[in-house]
Amino acid sequence: MRTNLNHFINGEWVASTGSETIQVINPATEEVIGEISSGTKEDLDKAVSAAKTSFPSFSKTTKEERMELLKSIAAEYENRKDELIEVITEELGSPISMSEKVHYHMGYNHFSHAAEALKNFSFEEDRGGHKIRKESIGVSGLITPWNFPTNQTSTKIAGAIAAGSPTVLKPASMTPFAAMLLADIMNTAGVPKGVFNLVNGSGSTIGTGISTHPDIDFVSFTGSGKVGEQIMKNGAETIKKVALELGGKSPLVVLEDANIEKAAKTAAWNIMMNTGQVCSAATRAIIPASIKKPFEEAIKQALSTFKYGDPKQEDVQTGPLISKEQWDTVQSYIEKGVHEGATLLVGGTGKPAGLKTGYYVKPTVFTDVTNDMVIAQEEIFGPVLSVITYHDLDEALHIANDTVYGLAGYVVGKDENTLSYVANNMKAGQITVNNGKTDFFAPFGGYKQSGIGREWGDFGIEEYLEVKAIMGLS
Ligand code: TAP
């Protein structure tokens, strides 16, 4: 059992003042793997106070000192690689190969890239008539979701450390153990007392406590739009800066000249990776009407090559959903799609054959989808793809941009001018052309209701800074 009923406050594990606990379940086995404490307002106050106390000295460290600290965290993170992979696999149900290639890797890259980004980062600039100083914003509250237990936490912690901002993290209650391991990593890596604190507990107590706390200057949140809205409202009471990384319904625009098999593989990977529990996943394939039949054949073929099942098996690529609740949500969307008149090409409701235990769903593809359908507009957070046809490029772009979201966009094809036209005209924060490689220096964040602010690299550091203008000094 992974049970740990302590919070990490002021450089040590301390007992919770509350007696309530939260059970953590392995979604592949449906078994309890441990318990955490459901923290109290008192626990949070202690953590915020520790962070506040560490602020004067930590915010005055040099960027070279913080670069060294980030490198040391990255090195310690690397030392704990096997443990990280194991805990992510258990609490998220992520296949072990994905826990390594995606989850572990992303977390590591945020620390190493923040260190690298600091090299050229300027905290002071002389602009002739005035000087600009960028100063740490103060104490930051970090609230993270369950879908990428190390990525979501590491990107925030790395940005904050690079900027000299002490933090209080509240990880998702369904995946707290990877974050707790991170606390140990930070400690061993030499993060000063009070600079990193972790308080477990419910969103309603600890999450709300963070968004309303008078001594927290900035809240960085990743999760659902509903909670994001609440955090903005709560933060308004003390005019807090908030950064929100929310949902998406990202388009994959397939051009007329695209290789159909490759396009279908891209679409399949997008819904199968992390079992579709990815805010930036392309969940709408927008394809030329002329290639509808071959694309349908190709996507069936592409999905048939995915192995899903027991996350502990090395060759499994897709595991279960995170929870029974998420399983029910995905089922109801699949029912809605059928009810709305979309054609079920692959999958459907129920569990895949042979996978009775665990929150497994059938990878599902709907065709004959119109963009006004609920399945094309709402974030499902499961392996469900909507295929929508278009007749000309303007229509494709109109469909691509016609949702309340704007987190990511994808385009595949050959003609460079058309690829760039589509990339430039999609209203989203991060565009990927022909499966371009992830760059951890590139900013990540959304337009419209996908959020406010950017993470990763130098943009991620900016979030944790205030800007001061000084006039009259030579
Ligand atoms: P949320 O409910 O938004 O949870 C995200 C984080 O916020 C968790 O740490 C949660 O704590 C906390 N929280 C909950 N209520 C809060 C409140 N009132 N004030 C402050 N913090 C609060 O997301 P979820 O339940 O994990 O997932 C629901 C949906 O969100 C998904 O179906 C998906 O559409 C979307 N989602 C999006 C993303 C990304 S990356 N954009 C990631 C995950 C989920 P507890 O864990 O203790 O509840």
From TrEMBL:
The active site is at E245. Residues 60-87 form a coiled coil. Residues 13-470 form the Aldehyde dehydrogenase domain. GO terms for molecular function: oxidoreductase activity, acting on the aldehyde or oxo group of donors, NAD or NADP as acceptor. Gene3D superfamilies: Aldehyde Dehydrogenase, Chain A, domain 1, Aldehyde Dehydrogenase, Chain A, domain 2. Keywords: Coiled coil, Oxidoreductase. The keyword Glycosyltransferase does not apply. It comes from the Bacteria. Belongs to the aldehyde dehydrogenase family. This is Aldehyde dehydrogenase. It comes from Virgibacillus pantothenticus. The lineage of its organism: Bacteria, Bacillati, Bacillota, Bacilli, Bacillales.
